[in-house]
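name: query_chain
kind: protein
chains: 1
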Amino acid sequence: MTDVRDVQAEWPLYEIFVRGKRGLNHVHVGSLHAADDAMALGNARDVYTRRNEGVSIWAVRADAIAASSPDEKDPLFAPAGDKVYRHPTFYAIPDDVPHM
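structure:
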């Protein structure tokens, strides 16, 4: 019998994102180990969309994700803070414009 720890050591970790029927964005829903991309998509469908709550799934190998650290927040995002002209805060957005 194969130990779960052996599978985790051999199979890469995938991060799973699901786009809901009413949502516009894919949302991170969890992680799983899989032997390949096809298995990751199939397992993600079985685990994370059991009640037909998704219309699209992304399975992304965790080792392919480049991410900033929360510790880098100030040096990474602070330069944009003094450029108020880059933010659309001076415009009136009509009420009938969705998702703004």
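note: Residues 91 and 97 are 13 Å apart (CA to CA).
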